[in-house]
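Anyone have tokens for Transcriptional regulator, HxlR family? Sequence:
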Amino acid sequence: MKESTQNQTDNKAFTEECHTVLTAVSDALYVIGGKWKLMIIIAMARGNKRFTEIQKQVTGISARVLSSELKDLELNGFIIKKVENGYPVTIEYELLPYSQTLEELVGAMTRWGIQHREKVKAEMGSEKSNKQ
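Reply: yep, here.
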């Protein structure tokens, strides 16, 4: 009986931990998920501040999607839109300090992406040599 009670306690703690992890990951994916948001932030961190500069760096993104993603990033506190009145009106986007909280995540994703690409290439290479 005592073992059953201990098991239930362990399972409850495991379930609560699992729920906490799933909720945290869900929140992160909601804010930076999708195909474009991190790529936009990375492009901006490399000095691209104008809409057209960002669009050129983030290959394949349409103007409509870029505009929408920039609004989402601004809403979530990663960037700010700066409008300078004059002729012509100048609009630049700037990363806010909060965007730096993603550095560790981007670094980990970069390392994993390089590792995964090398793994896939190696597997494709070994498949080709096995067929010959």
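DSSP finds five helices and two strands in the chain.
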